Amino acid sequence: MTYEYVADTEVYKGYTIKIVPDNDASSPRENDNFAKMVCFHNRYNLGDEQPRETPDEYLRSLASEFDPDLGDTIEYWENGRGWDMLYAQQKDGKIKSASDASDEVIEKAIGKALDKYVVLLPLALLDHSGLHMWCGSGPHWSDSAGWDSGQVGFIYATRDMILKEYGGKVLTKAKRERAQKTMRCEVEEYDQYLTGDVYGYEISKGDEDDDDYSDYTLDSCWGFYGMKYCMEEAKSSVDYMAKQPQFEI
Predict the structure, then answer these.
(1) Residue 17, CB half-sphere, CA atoms under 13 Å: how many?
(2) Based on CB atoms within 10 Å of each CB, which residue in 28, 30, 112, 195 is the most buried?
(3) Distances (CA, A) of 127 to 27, 146, 213
(4) Mean predicted confidence (pLDDT) in 43-58
């Protein structure tokens, strides 16, 4: 088959391998994934979920799933009952308002629940001549950042999700680190999808520079994230074909 653009060509064991961009690749988030990717953007549907609520509201709801008393704690401070003891509280030489003080208490309570039961990484997005995502935070949420970079959401795994994946009954430091590594890999793969770093290969017999070359496709496969990985899989296919009597060189 003739393509407008071939990313790479290599003759391997008497076969020609062509690596071609996969322009019809499906999102890796449509597959079974370890973690959940939540994004907030007003122009793009990204990740696994695009909540209508704000990021803070989403995290508050998530934390409430693990701390049954969190709702009462938030109500206590939001309705002003806890303000008297914090009114005009002084910190670092500055007078903190009752409202600011109560917000701080609520934020700490939510953070405590999340730290205990959830492993979470922030996600940043660059929107300029295409989309680029990575694990990290930005100065602002990118839905109002134009083409600039900013935080767009987060990827997380709950305690139950991690223990189901790695076994055991305790969420240890080692399991947290494994979860973070897996989530980073999922984000890297999703970024490859967003940036078009997805390929397929086609294999034909012979060398294109030879007169007897035929471009008849003996094998092809698509949906590989990363050109290097695609070439490795293509060579594995050639290794198999070269051992079969009907494909002997």
Answers:
(1) 24
(2) 28
(3) 18, 7, 44
(4) 93
At 89 the three-state DSSP class reads strand
Q: How many CA atoms lie within 13 A of 45 on its CB side?
A: 5
Cβ–Cβ contacts within 10 Å for residue 66, how many?
A: 15
Residue 6: predicted pLDDT: 93
Q: Round to whole Å and give the CA distance between 64 and 194.
A: 33
Structure tokens at 117: 């039961």
Q: Could you tell me which of 222, 210, 200 has the C-alpha nearest to residue 249? A: 210
All structural domains of the chain with their residue ranges: 8-25+197-247, 28-195
What is the structure's pLDDT at 91? Answer: 52
Spatial neighbors of 183 by CB under 8 A, at least 6 apart, are: 34, 35, 119, 121, 135, 155, 156, 157
Write the pLDDT tens digit of every residue in 206-226: 888 877 777 789 999 999 999
Burial of 119 (0-12, 13-18, 19+ CB in 10 A): buried
DSSP state of 247: G
Residue 124: other Cβ atoms inside 10 A: 19
